[in-house]
Amino acid sequence: MLSQTLNRASRSTRARRAVESFPVTRKVVDRFVPGETTADAVEASAALIATGRRVTIDVLGEDVLDLGGARATRDAYEAGCADGADVSLKLSALGQALPDGTTIATDHAAEICDAAAGLGCTVTLDMEDHTTVDSTLAIGAQLRASYPWIGNVLQTNLRRTPADIAALDGSGARIRLVKGAYREPASVALQRKADVDRAYEAAIDALMASDCHPMIATHDPAMLDRAVAQARATGRGDDRWEAQMLYGVRPDLEQRMVDDGHTMRVYLPFGSDWYGYFMRRLAERPANVAFFLRALAHR
Ligand SMILES: Cc1cc2nc3c(=O)[nH]c(=O)nc-3n(C[C@H](O)[C@H](O)[C@H](O)COP(=O)(O)OP(=O)(O)OC[C@H]3O[C@@H](n4cnc5c(N)ncnc54)[C@H](O)[C@@H]3O)c2cc1C
Prior knowledge:
Layout: H1 2-9, H2 13-21, H3 25-29, H4 38-49, E1 54-59, H5 67-80, E2 86-89, H6 101-119, E3 122-125, H7 133-144, E4 151-155, H8 161-168, E5 174-178, H9 193-209, E6 213-217, H10 221-233, E7 242-246, H11 251-259, E8 264-270, H12 275-284, H13 286-297
Bound molecules: flavin-adenine dinucleotide.
């Protein structure tokens, strides 16, 4: 119930104005978003790399509805690419929802891929709500012809995901597996957490058995244990799969993965447009809302 309300609020302009106006919010946001500028992102990413982690950088912003905004996002990404990093792109921020948006978003993503290639970076296309999945997978497949390292994301709450994994087997694609952060209708998505978790386990097994490069993106220790066991069972070395977590959620678990010798990549969001991202993190975990309210009460 609370999570539904927060998910709805993540798309509401009125709620956005209210949350952004709380003086305490920036302090709470810092836990999940290390800063607003490229310099903040570079500093946070250097600190993570120094501890043996890798990073994927996300320039915050979504639902860009004009060409100028889409170009500004592209420029921010090109400035933020750094050697050895991955960048995570939201195609909605590159113009996917504009008229002729598939072409516009593909062109902008291709320009970012060119810049990334020059710097030894890879690129992953974040997955947004279910209405964008066909377009995002198609853009991934098209770009993969020129940039074989481009990654897609699959969400195990969606009923279609087992078929998408089967279709991607043979492409060698980098595939990030997530449970799914968007509230979706029952016609397309599993509604019970236990079902989404079971689907996640099955998807780990399918990806580990495929020729894709699995990126197991979760803070759920049981899923990480399963990924480690399946990688071992299928003879996959630590250079042929990785774990991923969102900045600030489970640093202790990140460290455990690093200490155990696994490849651990942290999703590092930065930018001033943190609202939608922050609200989804609150929606995932009621304890985060309590943390937010406590900070409000103590100001
Ligand atoms: C690297 C990365 C990239 C992602 N990219 C996408 C994407 O492109 N599209 C998309 O739809 N979703 C994306 N997600 C979000 C994902 O879909 C889930 O919403 C999110 O990861 C929570 O699910 P979980 O697998 O951690 O498991 P859950 O079962 O939700 O959580 C397991 C445990 O993790 C901890 N935890 C989880 N979330 C939080 C939180 N917000 N704050 C504090 N603790 C928490 C808790 O201890 C919880 O018990 C991404 C996640 C990661 C890690």
